[in-house]
Amino acid sequence: MAYRVGRACLRCGVCVPKCPEGAIVAARLVRRDGMTLQPVHIDSKVCNDCGVCVSEAYWCPAGAIVKT
């Protein structure tokens, strides 16, 4: 796997539907302080290293997806 979700992740879930391979996987929704958070990770078995997740068009609001 060439990418990972870093500590800067806002847990907003915006990235999940944008991965063309479905490699960004959401964990169970967490409700905290009136907010709904969606922790995510990149499934290394599904990721094909395409780079869409770090492209400018993709736009992670926190820039949390980083190349390893």
Structure overview:
- This protein has 68 residues and is mainly β.
- The chain has one domain (3-62): Alpha-Beta Plaits (2-Layer Sandwich), CATH 3.30.70.
- Helix content is 0%, strand content 26%.
- The chain has no helices and 6 strands.
- It has strands at residues 3-5, 24-26, 30-32, 35-37, 40-42, 65-67.
- A hairpin with a 2-residue loop joins strand 3 (30-32) and strand 4.
- It is globular and about 35 Å long.
- The mean pLDDT is 88.
For the structure shown, list the relevant keywords:
68 residues, mainly beta, Alpha-Beta Plaits, two-stranded antiparallel sheet, 6 strands
CATH architecture: 2-Layer Sandwich
Summing up helix and strand content along with how strands pair, one would put the structural category as mainly beta
| Poorly predicted sequence stretches spanning 5 or more consecutive residues | none
Counting DSSP H or I runs of 4 or more residues, the number of helices is 0
Could you tell me the radius of gyration in angstroms? 12 Å
How many separate domains? 1
Shape: globular
- Report the CATH C-level class: Alpha Beta
Largest sheet: 2 strands, antiparallel
DSSP strand (E) fraction? 25-35%
The whole-number mean of residue pLDDT values reads 88
The largest beta-sheet arranges its strands as 1-6
Number of DSSP strand runs = 6
Distance between the termini: 8 Å
* Order of SSEs: EEEEEE
> Helix fraction?
under 10%
What name does CATH use for the topology?
Answer: Alpha-Beta Plaits
